[in-house]
Amino acid sequence: MSFRAVRQSKFRHVFGKEEKRDAGYDGIKISRNAWDSPFCDVNNKFLAVVLEAQGGGAFLVLPLEKTGRVDLNAPRVCGHTAAVLDVKWCPYNDNMIASCSEDCLIKVWEVPDGGLTEPLRESLVDLEGHQRRVGIIEWHPTAENILLSAGFDYMIFIWDLGSATIVKEISCHSDTIYSVSWNFIGSHIATTSKDKKIRYIDARSGEVLQEGKGHEGTKASRVVFVGDDDKMFTTGFSRMSERQYAVWDKSDLSRPKKLEMIDQGSGVLFPTYDPDTRMVYVGGKGDGNIRYFEITDDSGLVYFLSDYKTSAPQRGLGWLPKTGVNVNNCEIARCFKLHPKGFVEVISFTVPRKSTLFQDDIFPPTKEPVPSMTADEWVGGANTPCKKISMKDGFVSEKRTVKSGGLNKGLNKGLNAAKPTAAKPVDDVPKGEAALLKAYHDHVAEIKSLKEKIAALEAQ
Q1: CA distance 198 to 344
Q2: Closest to 317 measured CA to CA, from 295, 333, 293
């Protein structure tokens, strides 16, 4: 008789649940551009969605609490002269957002508290340098005012927003760049491109430290860093157009440490890594499900946990920062799913727990939304880890009635309550036959008198 052991994991029972429709955002003309981008981004204040705009590029910014149907004439950010391809909120300033477009420009905007009351056309900074359209932007994970951009001119620029200048040009690619990812301290980047190669690059010098053959399919592949040791998780396609994922070691990109087929789907897979739970969420464009995997340090490297399934396809996915999840409900992630018909659905991923106490095993200290160094320090060679903040500060314990004093006090109270009390003596009870007879006649007379009074009142 064969026995198959079940792998133990505290995230094995994570499940996703969509919020009610009135908790979503409806009536949005989401972009139908063919570029493989999430077309949205979200932080603790706002949701940004790229729009299908005529005669220029625009995106919508909505306060998270402003749910329901969006006004057709709602104000939008409309400073680009061509279609917007990507938007990213600044991780250290909830009111600052960057956008890139087919007009070859990167723009940085400031959104006022409470959202827009009129169309926003004036940006804070315009970054001009790419010769062709710009499809990817990524903020530095630890340094202030450092932004990366990748364009269809096969160039990667790293910008200092304080001076609006390029601090590094990386020109090692010979074909379209599909995705770029910073490592956790912001010293290196990983890229995937149309030449089917994966590269590990020093972000300051631009030197390619490792290069290897990635997924063999012709469609787009994506890469994210997983783990503090700079392991890389990629999604892509095989030569037979099967969707697959792979795990790579930065020191050797000649072959993946693990390569697994996922399914026969046709949509590009977008991976999102949560360093607190060490989980990777994978959602495909045009799919109705979101898979999640767990990254480990053992020989297995990656384990499939479960998936969230629906029949509605997704146009893109945006993930709320960890500081915005509901700790009281054991919510470990929240996703904003773009539907093709203009609806943004909110999906919550939770770990079922019976205890009402703070769950420190699933909520370790997370990244604090403040920079750990300046742009000049990073350019000078500093590598400062991100600052951490406790999730317990956002936890509100459930109020419960708790009896104190021990068992003896409770038993004594119960015994005392069980003792019968003696009946109080009544002094006005008639005694003897004569007294009882007199009381009887008095009651009869009183009743007769009351009846006469009632009859008189009714007659009036």
Answers
A1: 33
A2: 333
